[in-house]
């Protein structure tokens, strides 16, 4: 009989725990800071906000840079969350892989679309 506790304990699994926890917190913080920065800019606009004012917010290179960073953070945040949900609640490995591939392709497509919209402004 093998002993599976103490110093000879064998730990198995993907070992994503701390890294994923930290990634969720860091990406969440980045998205919150971006939201605050965007709200400050919107609140500083006098009068009604039309297309010109909205496009003007994103016309600056620094705003495009932090928007791209936020889009990447959002995609990674969503990927980590969905992967964790699938790993916890979808037991058939084949179905889990299909769902993960679908979500990954969808997130990359959304990220590409977001970048396309941003750089056309």
From TrEMBL:
The chain crosses the membrane at residues 26-45, 57-77, 97-119. Its cofactor is heme. InterPro entries: SQR/QFR_C/D, Succ_DH_anchor, SuccDH_FuR_B_TM-su. It is a multi-pass membrane protein. It is found in: Cell inner membrane. It comes from the Bacteria. CDD domains: SQR_TypeC_SdhD. Its main location: membrane. Coiled coil: none annotated. Signal peptide: none annotated. Pathway: Carbohydrate metabolism; tricarboxylic acid cycle. Keywords: Cell inner membrane, Cell membrane, Electron transport, Heme, Iron, Membrane, Metal-binding, Transmembrane, Transmembrane helix, Transport, Tricarboxylic acid cycle. NCBIfam families: succ_dehyd_anc. Membrane-anchoring subunit of succinate dehydrogenase (SDH). This is Succinate dehydrogenase hydrophobic membrane anchor subunit. It comes from Comamonas odontotermitis.
């Amino acid at each position: 009989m093998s002993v599976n506790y103490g110093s000879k304990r064998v730990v198995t699994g993907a070992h994503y725990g701390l890294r994923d926890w930290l990634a969720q917190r860091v990406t969440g913080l980045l998205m919150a800071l971006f939201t605050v920065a965007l709200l400050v800019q919107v609140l500083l606009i006098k009068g009604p906000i039309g297309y010109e004012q909205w496009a003007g917010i994103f016309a600056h290179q620094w705003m495009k840079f932090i928007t791209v960073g936020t889009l990447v953070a959002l995609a990674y945040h969503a990927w980590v969350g969905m992967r964790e949900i699938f790993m916890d609640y979808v037991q058939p490995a084949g179905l889990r892989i299909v769902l993960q591939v679908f979500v990954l392709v969808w997130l990359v497509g959304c990220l590409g679309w977001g970048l396309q919209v941003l750089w056309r402004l």
